[in-house]
Every structure is written in C-alpha cells, then in structure tokens.
Design goal:
The protein is α/β, with parallel strands linked by helices. The chain has 9 helices and 14 strands.
Length: 286
C-alpha cells in the first residue's frame, strides 16, 4: 500500500473514532417503522455523560443545549441514553434501539445517516499567549524546537491527523501524546491536552477546535488559538470538518425533521456554539 493511501486510511479511521468525542462511533442498523417514529412523545438522544464541551449527565454541553432547543420547539420530552463515547457506542445505543439521534458526527461519516451540517469547525494550534509563538502551520520552523501535544487513540500516533502531518515533516520526536479517552473517572478527560498547555507541560497543542475553544476559556492563563492552515495538508490530511446530527441509515423521515429544525433554530444554534467558544467557519458552498 502506498504511503498516501495509508495516510488517507489512517485519517478516515481517526475521524470515525473521533466523531463522538469530538467528535467516536461504531454503527449498525435497527430501524423503526415510520408509524412508530411519528408516535414517539420523546426526542431520544444518545450521548456521553462525561464529555464536555459536547455533553454531560447534567446536560451542560452545547450538544445538550441544542437538543433541548429542538425538543422544546417540537413540544417533545427530551430523553437521553447515556453511554461512554467508546468503540461500541453505536452498537449499544442507536443500533440497540435505545435512542434515535447522535448530536455530533462528521457529515461524511459513513456509519450514520447525517443531517444537513449545523456547524463547520477546524483543528487549531493552542499556545500560551505570553509565549508569543504564533504557530499557524505545520511548516513553521519554530515547531522543530517545541514540545507538541496531540490527542491519540492507541499506543502509537499513526491514527491522529496531527501526528500524520508532524511525522511527514520528521517531527515525531517532538510529539507528546494524550489519550483522547483519558481517565474516565475524572471530569471531561480530553481537557488534559489543553491543561498541559496551560501548565507548560507542552509548548503547543493541536486539538479539535470546539474542545480547544471551550477549555481555553476555562484556563487560568490566557491561551491563543490559531486555525491549522491550510485546511487540508497534502496529500490528504483534512483539518476542517462539517458536523451534523446522525440518525440510523434509512431513517429519512427523522433526518428531514431534523433538517427542518436546524433551519428553524439556526440563529440560536450559532449563538450557543459561540457561547461555548467553538471556532466557526463559513459553510462550504453547496
């Protein structure tokens, strides 16, 4: 297999796993009939109970806020199935028929039927403002002298898009890895990467924008976020993604309903995202 195809596969696998944590899924289908869907009094959402800024059991995440907005607009009760965002999440939630909607998946995610995207965001470089590092690109020479924190899924770094771009430039020795799953007994495990920048354990982090923006706002010292540029690191390592709501494949009626609600609440959804510090990009022309 060529290195280009290996890189493409690694990025695809990484984002299939990141779809919920940032968002992490494995999928199967158990579709309900249109009649049973229309009779449901509840908006049934699959979510992680410990995954801020996206969701938590106290319903303080931005995906919780958006789900509440949709449910109230439809006069429905909001009902959650809580499950850690790990491999098997979809098998134990959406596929098992316990819930019907996953609030944040990449629009290209093949294992769910996605709605129209409701935001577009990017990976960012995160640095302490007082360091004045001004990192914008993986080609910035300053990176050769910095400790670079990234999220990882396993014991190697090959499944992270940031790692692919860094290794392509022979910067693997600069990488400091932080597990995206982290210690689940503690609040919002992915925040450890941003906290490492605050403490000075790493000089710069490369993180998914919604996660970085939220925890940068909580930092005890000012942090600077800069969008990774360019949006696609050639030959194929994308850093910008459209995010949608996910339903079961074949559940076109529910998707149509959600598309309508996303249009109806567009202004309020954007306000929620901005309140949470999500770096928003203009939607891709369609």
């Amino acid at each position: 297999m060529s290195s280009d195809s290996e890189g493409h596969t690694a990025v695809r696998v990484w984002h299939e796993n990141m779809a919920l944590c940032l968002p992490l899924l494995v999928f199967g289908v158990m579709a309900m009939s249109p009649a049973s869907r229309s009779e449901q009094p509840s908006l049934r959402v699959c979510a992680d109970p410990n995954n801020l800024p996206f969701s938590d059991s106290a319903e303080n995440g931005f995906e919780n806020r958006i789900a509440t907005l949709i449910a109230r607009g439809r006069g429905q009760r909001l009902e959650y199935t809580w499950w850690p965002a790990r491999r098997g999440f979809i098998r134990n939630t959406l596929r098992a028929g316990r819930c019907d909607i996953v609030m944040g998946v990449p629009s290209s995610y093949e294992l769910t039927l996605p709605s129209t995207p409701y935001y577009r965001s990017t990976y960012v470089f995160v640095t302490r403002t007082d360091r004045h590092l001004a990192v914008r690109s993986f080609d910035d020479t300053v990176l050769r002298h910095l400790r670079i924190g990234i999220h990882m899924m396993g014991d190697d770094y090959a499944n992270s898009p940031a790692a692919l771009s860094l290794q392509r430039r022979r910067l693997g020795a600069q990488i400091v890895g932080y597990m995206i799953y982290g210690d689940y007994s503690k609040p919002h495990p992915p925040s450890a990467l941003i906290n490492a920048v605050t403490r000075g354990d790493v000089d710069v982090a490369v993180a998914w924008g919604p996660l970085a923006g939220y925890f940068a706002k909580q930092s005890r010292v000012p942090l600077t976020l800069a969008n990774v540029s360019p949006a696609i690191d050639l030959p194929f390592t994308p850093f910008v993604f459209d995010i949608a709501l996910g339903v079961r494949r074949g559940d076109t009626a529910r998707r149509a309903m959600l598309d309508s609600e996303l249009v109806r609440h567009r202004v309020d959804i954007e306000r929620i995202l901005r309140d949470f510090g999500v770096p928003l990009l203009n939607a891709r022309a369609r």
